[in-house]
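@channel anyone free to eyeball this complex?
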Amino acid sequence: MSETTTGFDTGGIDTILARYDGFEGHLIGILHEVQKLYNYLPREALERVSEQTGFTLERLYSIATFYNFFSLEPRGKHVIRVCTGTACHVKGAPRVLQEIEERLEISSDETTPDGQFSIEHVHCVGTCSLAPVVVVDQDTHSHVKPSKVRALLKNYEDKG
Amino acid sequence: MAEFRSQFLQQGVDGRVQGRPCSCDIKQVGCRGFCARDLLVDVEVDGRTHTYQKVKKTYVKRIVQDHILLGEPVASWLVGDDYAQFHDQQEKILLAECGTVDPEDIDSYIEYHGYEGARKALGGMKPEEVIDEVTRSVLRGRGGGGFPAGRKWTSTRRAAGEPKYVICNADEGDPGAFMDRALLEGTPHAVIEGMLIGAYAVGSCEGFIYVRAEYTLAVERFQTALDQAYEHGFLGKDILGSGFDFDLSIRLGAGAFVCGEASALCMSIMDRIGTPWPKPPRLAEKGLWGKPTNVNNVETWANVPKIIRHGAEWFASIGTPKSTGTKIFSLVGKINNTGLVEVPMGISLRTIIEDIGGGIPKGKKFKAVQTGGPSGGCIPAEHLDSPVDFETLEELGSIMGSGGMVVMDEDTCMVDVAKYFVTFCRDESCGQCTPCRDGTAQMVQLLEDICEGRGTPEHITKLEQLSELATLGSLCGLGKAAANPVLSTLRFFRDEYDAHVNDKRCPGGVCKALHTLHINADLCTGCRVCAVACPVEAITGEKKQPHVIDNEICTRCGSCYDVCRFDAIYKE
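replying in thread with the prediction:
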């Protein structure tokens, strides 16, 4: 197991990187895999990636802050993505998002203090016939109305 | 999602036929487009096919027992007349095999003439002949630009520099568009075959497909298709014994709309942030890593195999002389038959919306159809008989775009729609051009003022000025076209802007500060459904007595308006 001086386990990162035959053209793919491992991109992880690949930490931070998918802050156990694409918008997505924000008492791009939920708004997941759509983890919820939000959240609270 | 539910369905059918032997072949197939009736299942018994709609797991046992074993289809679960209505006026070329071919089985694709276009091209045509065929077909880019594919391929072939690259732009960032997703999930080999033919034509040995990360199933299916294509010798070295080598791999996006712009996409593959670069030189001359690069959209590539198989004249005979072939549109929003429709170019908007789409739900009135995503515009009812082609949509202040078609009704606020799109562009701007970065931010501020009751006529003047600035001063299409939704809605829905600014009223009943909700006591039956739906308990009344909304408490969420079955709730 590889560790940094702070004790951060970077073994998983080394395993990911070992699968690549050269890193040019693969940075975003690598960061996707690293984020999947830790649920966000910790600084220590980015330092290890920089060390092993030769990409500067500055480059890694520019990628992590430019692309919506990446998070430098720990995300909740359950990540709620409210689709705000056009079809979802005209069918009431803003109200759904507002209802979720009010119930969890956080805003979009924030995580609840207990670490259970994060809200991210995504511009379109491409399932427009199911509008309004809310994706929680790997589950796609369709035709979501504000009145359905409480039950939807409870389902994940119960799962833990 | 239909794909996941179909997995459950297969488990339900396998082996559970009450002890009776049953030879049953279950196939998963790609999306045939009628998403409004998902889950669709075809059951073929002794050569006769019946189609079931909205199939649930609990239906499976009865379908197996009654239909498959006893030969009696369950009539009440079958598709109705609207199924034919949805399909009759479509012309399926790209989606033809979706519904029959298993996207995870290359042999299924080969069975339906898969890779015959590649065999023809690599087996007996010179690269220039392939380019000539595509040029004469007048195939234009389906991603939004509408640039002639043959001309782009010619430029790439002629460009100096090795290696050359071919790229499939599968970023599909336009909100409301999902036709590329359906093609990647439903017929990935058509895209691979198209890219193989294109690579051969331009002289490229390496290609990438850049897929947005949100499309996890598309990525999985495409990877499976790539693996199978390699195993069967359609990718790799000496393909089909032609001496031509071609490698193709996936690169993921990470949630940046601007990476749908070809040079920003290249930046992303090159491990950088997605900032577009100035052109000329075009990417065909200097693209990925400074080398000649041919970027085409998923749908563009998917058209190529059949153009080679059937010939340029066949393709050019469909559609209009300048907009040949078919186009897949994602028909979504306030429309009964939501889904993907593939129609010949030149068909009217009215045919798509009223005939194929089945009109507006709940008897509401059509207000506009938005085409072309954030770079597009809103087309009102008086232009519904316009043909859908590249030129006409531009004349109407919109664009074809990637094919998103969002239908809006009387409950849509057109100023809110403009605000929505400009906000989107502001959020997705890469930030390098001041007119785009700051221009969109300023436009959003102005539109928010208008929607929140602080608008003045000067706001509209400033919007027009900023629109011109952003259009002239931005480097890429995102900035240049960010003002289109504003200009389009100002052109056709000026009265709504005037109502917001002068009367402090939102005709669509959307802008919270500019409307209130009321209950018509003559129509209200006191059923209390609205009171239960209200998240802030703003509705009071006795059971079976007319109810009242307290507008001091009401947040204008609209839940009551949506659930009332008696049209007793109105906005003013």
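from a first look: Chain B has a mean pLDDT of 92.
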